Amino acid sequence: MTAPLVAAVDIGGTKTAAALVRGGAVLTRTRAATPARDGAAAVLDTAAALVRSLGEAPVAVGVGAPGLVDPTTGLVTAATSSIHGWSAVDVPGGLADRLGLPGVVLNDVQAFTLGEAVHGAGRGLPTVLGVAVGTGVGGGVHAAGTLLTGRLGAAGHLGHVPVPQATGRPCPCGAVGHVEAVAAGPAIAAAYAAGTGATVDLPEVVRRARAGDPVAVEVIAHAGAALGVALAGLANTLDPDRVVVGGGAAVPELLAAARPAFAAACMPVLGAVPLVPAALGADAQLVGAAEAALRALAAGSGAGPATAPGPVAAPSPAVVAGSAPGEEVAR
């Protein structure tokens, strides 16, 4: 049986990508700048235009978006400041109005986790932790075929696990001592600036580390160790089969520093939990968003989607919106 064709959207603070996905494979994709300063309506207009430009006739649309998604209402909460007016936005409802398709939205890193767990580096494994390291540090948990969202949609939010390497350091969330305060890309660049007086971005810090700059080497190693300790805390709690790490700041040097710290902080009874790079690259969020849309359709219509191993997880209430021809979709 041919898997349904689904549209997927990955909304970011600077760019929005859209794709047509079938059975976990991205068939075609496009992207445009996110009109972040113009507000939520303009962002959704852009997303809908991108989906329409792909042609074909998808049966649903899945969206990975910045911010937390309330599992009861489906509204974006704890919204990113990079998109004006993003708080309390009904993303699937807005796209249903524009496209006439049922839709589902989830946090972008949870979308990354779902994509990697079902179709990427965690494929076929019962419990997978997904971690994305970029301008922030995010995470997700996929267990027994279900993406865990938690009471407020914050399940797996790894960036705000306290670690000793971040003691006293302010986190963007407003607290102190969280791993994001030392392991995110801007935090690494800030640590390098503090040690050298040179204000450069993360790619330049990485370039200098590869050229032998001792400060660059040290700040990346420190960030990696902090990440490893945070990941070990989650591994000790969840006993995962694999930890998958992606994102623009997840450079090989960061992972190389994270692995020994991770292994040292894990309970010995867990053995060697593999900590591996993501397999889907920039498509992970799109693939995960498409998977979420298929699961939502299946839960609403009773039709079983042709997806990867594991039971189909029901969507959170009020996340799905709209209806496709011939489909009854739970709201």
What features would you highlight for this structure?
331 residues, alpha/beta, Nucleotidyltransferase, domain 5, 2 domains, 5-stranded mixed β-sheet, 12 strands, 35% helix, globular, disordered C terminus
CATH class of the largest domain: Alpha Beta
Helix content, binned percent = 25-40%
Q: Would you tell me the structural class of the helices and strands? A: alpha/beta
- Strand line-up in the sheet with most strands: 3-2-1-4-7
Q: How far is it from the N-terminal to the C-terminal residue, by CA?
A: 27 Å
Number of helices: 9
Give the beta-strand count.
Answer: 12
From the 3D structure, determine the CATH topology of the largest domain. Nucleotidyltransferase, domain 5
Q: Please state the average pLDDT score.
A: 89
Low-pLDDT segments: 301-331
Report the portion of residues in β strands.
Answer: 15-25%
Largest sheet: 5 strands, mixed
Tertiary shape = globular
The SSE order reads: EEEHEEEHEHEEEHHHHEHEH
> How many separate structural domains?
2
**Could you give me the name of the CATH homologous superfamily of the largest domain?**
ATPase, nucleotide binding domain
Rg over CA atoms, rounded to whole Å, is 19 Å
Examine the secondary-structure arrangement and name the CATH architecture of the largest domain: 2-Layer Sandwich
